[in-house]
């Protein structure tokens, strides 16, 4: 595993150790007062707000802290986001290195962070019981969960507790959750309903996760998504939606885009549903169909995998000035969310968020966007696309490697899996993809006959190559 992961990092040219000058800047920034000259303006004291963070167990790079409360018939959502601009000097060595990295890359044996850990897991992270500089979003919602007012400011905040998804779900299920967590569930549910109403869609695709035992051995599992994860994600989506609207109204910024699905792809997906025995009436909107599916059922898992083809082509669109006017209509929209949308809630782990946040702060304050932000905007889409491809290649390669390591001792054995993808027959053989539940593997499968999509098959593990990160099954 160690050799394979090292080879994969070299193959995708993943940056590893931070250059000495960039690391020195980070260490110096960690000792500075939070109001650096490049992050100007009075910082409000909001340490009285009882924020909490909600993340996977073991997380230390904490971008967001949340507080939700009733306001009359509606709600007020406060979302504190790590203020990375208070620590990174524009044009400096650290800034340059973050542009080279683009985003944090997570690995089975650790992580390659966007920012040095002295910041991302220390001085800039919203760790519990620590006063931290933050960009605070205050979003007022009406009784239906729709935003009616938004304010963005620099602030000092203090998280009261670092919670995990499992802890929050357990408290909600047991009826012991406090008002904040119950409010999160209520607002999250309202926002999910609003998402379906506007035609947005969230896919519950089985997600492979690499896990490591206490003894150090690697294994794979499909991660069960808890309801609270969906509700928490809706707070981030809400913030990204109002951020995009602020930037589009200001005529400057960077939004996340996804083109509408091609009609031919939608028609093909309807044929797939029919072939799998999934009832999709013409009058039933696509988001409402997704809400009825269970990824643990073979036919549903196959459909959800096919449904991901509707969500291809995501990118970023930077704009500002006469040569790059703000996009409108479909060009400004993220088709899966069915709304304009921007990344502003994960600046410790994603470069573009720092810039979108600064645009929103300037828009709310009624002042000019800082020159260092304006100058960087045109290059951000290209930077995020190239670095995102690199991280995606590493993610897929790491899972492929673990699959090969886990399965190598079992060549020649038989397994039962569900066909989740199938090509047209060619040269007397049909190729597709097979989903196994134990171990949690999605791998190529070949057959001399048809591969029945969504059906269970007995297959034989035909080949494993750890150096090539390759696993192949054949129909037994």
Number of strands: 17
Q: How many separate domains make up the residues?
A: 3
Helix and strand content put the structural class at: alpha+beta
Helix-residue proportion: 25-40%
Strand fraction: 25-35%
User: What do the pLDDT scores average to?
Assistant: 92
What does this molecule look like?
The protein is of the alpha+beta class and 476 residues long. It folds into 3 domains: 339 residues, no CATH class; 44 residues, no CATH class; 65 residues, OB fold (Dihydrolipoamide Acetyltransferase, E2P). The chain is 35% helix and 26% strand. It is built from 13 helices and 17 strands. Strands 1, 2, 3, 4, 7 and 8 form a 6-stranded mixed sheet that branches. Strand 16 and strand 17 form a beta hairpin. Helix 2 runs parallel beside helix 4 and helix 7 crosses helix 11. The two termini are 29 Å apart. The model has no long low-confidence stretch (mean pLDDT 92).
